[in-house]
Amino acid sequence: MNLPSHFYAIVDPIGGHQPAELAQILLQAGARVLQLRLKNVSRRDFLAAAREIKRLCHRTGALFIVNDRADIAMLAEADGVHLGQLDIPLEAGRRLMGPHKIIGVSTASLEMARAAEAGGADYIGFGPMYPGGLKNIQTGQGIEKLKLVRAAVKLPIVAIGGITEATVPEVLAAGADAAAIITDVVKAEDIPAKVRAILAGR
């Protein structure tokens, strides 16, 4: 698959926005792939947000991915699901989602990346790239490990973890197809301006 943008936007309410509101802001600023990431919410609220964001993405032709929850992705008719290492296994996700939906898999090592490719993932997330970020990571994987993964797999790579507008160019230069950013975007004073700068700043 080809990702539609080098900016992989993540809808996360840590900045105080409602999910659909944030999705609308991101899409209007030019985001063309959105992942809905909701922690500590009811399944009912997760599904309601996913269905609304799916409608917003459909209007703009953007790709819509649900984080963690294949069941929510199916019910919302999302384009795909992104699975972490503690979520359901890739094989089970594929059986649930079917052959035509997108499945991304989080990886944190060369071995995980190779396993995801061998298992039939459509893309991999790789990280955390840098210290800090939403999870306050102490040690990042770094550019050199990203280069090793790029050399080992043919799948699209979405780099994630502590990435900011300033570091997007170096992760792309190291072989990532896209950069996923949460904190630097959703906590920006001017989210549309931040998104446009990222999109313009390859």
Explain how this protein is built:
This protein has about 200 residues and is of the alpha/beta class. It has one domain: Aldolase class I (TIM Barrel), CATH 3.20.20. About 40% of the residues lie in helices and about 20% in strands. It has 9 helices and 8 strands. The chain has helices at about 20-30, 45-60, 70-75, 90-95, 110-120, 145-150, 170-175, 185, 190-200; strands at about 5-10, 35, 65, 80-85, 100-105, 125, 155-160, 180. Helix 5 (about 110-120) links the parallel strand 5 and strand 6 (about 125). Helix 1 packs parallel to helix 2 (about 45-60). The two termini are about 20 Å apart. The model has no long low-confidence stretch (mean pLDDT about 95).
Question: What topology emerges from the helices and strands here?
Answer:
Blueprint: E1 7-11, H1 19-28, E2 33-36, H2 43-60, E3 63-67, H3 70-75, E4 80-83, H4 90-97, E5 102-107, H5 110-118, E6 123-126, H6 143-152, E7 157-160, H7 168-173, E8 178-181, H8 183-186, H9 191-200
Parallel strand pairs: 1-2, 1-8, 2-3, 3-4, 4-5, 5-6, 6-7, 7-8
